[in-house]
Write a structure and sequence with these properties.
alpha+beta; 6-stranded mixed beta sheet; elongated
Length: 647
């Protein structure tokens, strides 16, 4: 006998709302899956891929394995029961999530996160086979909203990366609520299920998952300007993003947009990719909920009073296959989008999210045209005030005042240059707070960072720069390189008089590079800094040398006379050893390498360094008082710490 046939049809009780447990189950389950995915994707890159050592083909096959394995749930459900599949997937997902909280990186983290993805997809398959359709659009969107708002409230450093008792208590509470909802819905209450949700809404979930991760976690709200904004402005952006997610969850329940939801979604995604961040990201977020509602329309008409159970079972099976197929779309889109930074795909990677949003839009358009007369539900009472409270609270907990400028009176300062590999240490753990805590012990005046990620879904959606700056209590200036979210950064509380960024030519290399140029005040002196991460040093080193020459020219008003050249520093991951020919181009610009006389310590790879490719080069007018390359495990590179004297 089929699963839906075993469920007796019971008329709804008047005066009592339908039990919310299926909604709670979907919301908490999607939240846990998002948590696991934010560990799986960066673990795939840093642990399995070893930051480029593993071929993209092997990485793709490994990732695909864990997205294909859930298809085994299809024959299992036929032999047993879809409800058993749901419970097994839910139990495994919760157990793996708690194990990830205890994992300390390495292979266990990689395998746990991989298995967690499979468990989460098995859970979703079971939900598609058993859950009443009316709950599905709001449950799926609510899960994306809850995961994103929690991510924002935690300063985009998820619970899984945090130690101590409070993150453990929060993780246990979330898993317990999830399992309790699964138990009440699937085991104890066993309520009637009038009909499954359309396969369209389940298939759309995978593409929606991608768009939520790319634009809904705060990165879509980052302004194009490289400088840091006030604490009030940043908190407002966070509050608006959280409010947009609350609106998306509300629209997923009311389904009032119809087919137009897809048009707003495509416009929002395309606008954000075109550089119109902020409002377009909010539109895309809200439109996701409206698209889910439209894709899930007409679910009420599937209630046949217990008749035509064969048709309902067939629809449930289609929904189960659809959700697994939609998550395959998610995986393929992730690989296509981020592979473009390491290989020439023949088209701009911005096409990928726009195409994914168009796919969701087509689904919503087709459902909206078919069911124009579908009833519009009312939003829950006081939902507006609840949503406003959530948005304001999320903004308040992330608010932090902008640090003040702190000039120094002397002529010495400490500089740290560090390629942080998106904040992931040798063990694959997110080490942003450890990086900040270590750097603070060196009391730096200037910190130069390479491979800074401000929100790539591939790396978990974290804002490395804001988090490290918060830990150091320093202002920051960001320079986009590969795209608007990945590049280099300078942190300092010294007065900055000039700042800019020059995009370097690619010279046949797919990953973008730039040279961030800064002029800051050290006592009574001006010092110029070129902060860069060279991708193709043979072609880009001469470009950086030309920038250093321009920066060295002191800017005096006409007629004042001839000034001494401004002291200049060129620092960062230059992917160049002291003996490489491209180093000669930098030396010809008047730069010298002070670390040669101070031990010439290697910086890469961090676990067994054999070569120095991270540098702090200085011009005339600067003297290296001391230099050090500490052996710390927070990246695949080692940092360079230099104490410099001006004059």
């Amino acid at each position: 006998m089929t699963e839906t046939a075993r469920q007796p049809h019971a008329p709804p009780r008047r005066g009592l709302p339908a039990p919310p447990w299926p909604l709670v189950m979907l919301v908490t389950g999607v939240t846990l899956l998002f948590d696991v995915m934010r560990v799986f994707l960066p673990s795939l890159i840093t642990l399995y891929g070893r930051a480029g050592e593993t071929s993209p083909e092997r990485m793709g096959l490994y990732a695909a394995l864990w997205f294909v394995l859930p298809f085994a749930a299809i024959p299992v459900a036929r032999l047993g029961s879809p409800r058993i599949v749901l419970v097994a997937g839910a139990a495994a997902l919760a157990a793996i999530r708690l194990c990830l909280q205890a994992a300390d990186g390495g292979t266990p983290q990689l395998l746990l996160a991989s298995a967690g993805v499979t468990a989460g997809l098995v859970f979703l398959y079971g939900c598609a086979r058993t859950t009443r359709g009316a709950w599905v659009p709001a449950g799926l969107t609510g899960g994306l909203a809850a995961a994103s708002i929690l991510h924002l409230a935690l300063d985009r450093v998820d619970l899984v990366w945090r130690g101590g008792p409070l993150p453990w208590l929060a993780a246990v509470a979330l898993c317990a609520l999830f399992l309790w909802a699964v138990f009440l819905w699937s085991v104890r209450l066993s309520p009637a299920s009038p009909g499954p949700a359309p396969a369209a809404v389940w298939f759309a979930f995978g593409p929606m998952f991608l768009l939520a991760g790319m634009y809904g976690g705060g990165s879509g709200m980052l302004p194009q300007e490289a400088g840091q904004h006030s604490g009030a402005f940043t908190a407002l952006m966070v509050a608006l993003q959280a409010g947009a997610w609350c609106a998306a969850a509300g629209y997923a329940w009311t389904s009032s947009w119809g087919w137009a939801a897809g048009l707003f979604l495509v416009a929002g995604v395309a606008g954000t990719e075109a550089g119109l961040t902020g409002p377009t990201a909010l539109v895309a977020t809200i439109a996701l909920g409206a698209c889910a509602a439209t894709a899930g329309q007409d679910t009420g008409r599937q209630d046949t009073g217990g008749q035509d159970t064969g048709g309902q079972e067939s629809a449930a099976r289609r929904g189960g296959v659809a959700v697994l197929g939609g998550m395959l779309v998610f995986l393929v889109a992730v690989f296509l989008y981020y592979a473009a930074f390491d290989a020439d795909l023949g088209f701009p990677n911005a096409v990928v999210p726009v195409a994914v949003s168009a796919l969701v839009a087509v689904i919503a358009l087709r459902r909206g045209r078919r069911h124009r007369s579908a009833p519009v539900r009312r939003a829950p009472r006081r939902w507006g005030s609840i949503a406003l409270s959530i948005a304001l609270l999320t903004g308040l907990v992330t608010w932090q005042p902008l640090p003040p400028e702190r000039p120094i009176a002397g002529n010495e300062f400490t500089l740290v240059a560090y390629n942080i590999r998106m904040g992931f240490g040798l063990g694959g753990r997110l080490d942003l707070d450890r990086i900040a805590a270590w750097a603070a012990t060196r009391r730096p005046d200037v910190v130069l960072l390479s491979e800074v990620d401000r929100g790539w879904l591939l790396n978990g959606g974290h804002d490395d720069l804001a988090r490290i700056a918060r830990g150091l209590g320093m202002r920051y200036h960001f320079a986009p390189a590969a795209d608007r979210l990945w590049g280099d950064a300078l942190l300092t509380n010294l007065p900055v008089t000039e700042i800019g960024s020059t995009r370097l030519n690619r010279h046949g290399y797919p990953t973008g590079a730039e040279a961030q140029s800064i002029v800051l005040e050290v006592g009574d002196h001006e010092v110029g800094i070129v902060n860069t991460h060279l991708q193709e040093p043979r072609g880009q080193a001469p470009e950086v040398a030309a920038i250093a020459r321009r920066l060295a020219a002191a800017a005096l008003p006409p007629g004042v006379g001839v000034a001494d050249p401004r002291p200049v520093i060129v620092a960062g991951d230059l992917n160049t050893t002291p003996s490489d020919p491209q180093m000669r181009a930098l030396e010809a610009a008047g730069l010298s390498d002070p670390l040669r006389a101070l031990g010439d310590p290697p910086t890469s790879p961090a676990d067994a360094p054999v070569r120095r490719i991270d540098h702090v080069l200085i011009s005339k007018g600067l003297t290296a008082v001391a230099a050090d390359v500490p052996r710390v495990p927070f990246s695949d590179h080692l940092p360079v710490v230099v104490r410099l004297r001006v004059g």
